[in-house]
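Progress note, sequence design subtask.
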């Protein structure tokens, strides 16, 4: 029964504290074979007036956005073909690689690359998994199935996919895509 005590400065929302508690629970469970209900997280908030570093009272850093939610919102914008909204989620050095493609840096490149392959694709999600790497980025995996229409108008559905994203401070810096489209394309 692991017990984790976290001391933070006041100022984080209840949702942000919930995210911290869930992340700490998950971090412990990577090492300790305990079900979630066996892990206790206690968050102690300290008033700003009761904390000093370098002879100065400090304020808490702003919480980072949930990287899985950033990815979900980006993918939703892409599915709606709202390229302006999707672009707002991309870092300046964004790179993406799809099966059979060269590295692409702009969403317009992706649209042009996909045009002869299919008319549109939608995703049904089985899940999102987010983790913090040892470096600066969080890694988000989303997985599920693709549905859509081939370029000739024939529908397709149930094609497996996994997308891997790297997220730094709420911006996507990398997307790698794996799917079984080529396995299904030859069967239509």
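Output:
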């Amino acid at each position: 029964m692991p017990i984790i005590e976290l001391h933070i400065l006041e100022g984080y929302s209840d949702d942000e504290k919930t995210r911290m508690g869930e992340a700490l629970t998950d971090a412990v469970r990577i090492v300790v074979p305990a079900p979630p209900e066996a892990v206790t997280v206690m968050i102690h908030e300290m008033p700003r007036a009761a904390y000093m570093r370098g002879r100065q009272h400090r304020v808490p850093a702003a919480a980072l956005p949930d990287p899985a939610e950033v990815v979900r919102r980006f993918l939703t914008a892409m599915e709606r073909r709202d390229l302006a909204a999707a672009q707002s989620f991309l870092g300046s050095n964004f790179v993406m690689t799809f099966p059979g493609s060269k590295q692409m840096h702009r969403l317009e490149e992706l649209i042009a690359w996909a045009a002869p392959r299919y008319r549109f694709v939608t995703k049904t999600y089985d899940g999102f998994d987010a983790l913090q790497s040892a470096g600066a980025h969080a890694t988000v995996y989303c997985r599920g199935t693709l549905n859509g229409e081939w370029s000739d108008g024939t529908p397709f559905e149930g094609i497996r996919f996994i997308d891997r994203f790297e997220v730094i401070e709420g911006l996507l810096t990398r997307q790698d895509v794996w799917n079984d489209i080529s396995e299904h394309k030859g069967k239509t």
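The CA atoms of residues 96 and 104 lie 5 Å apart. Work on this subtask will continue into the next period as scheduled.
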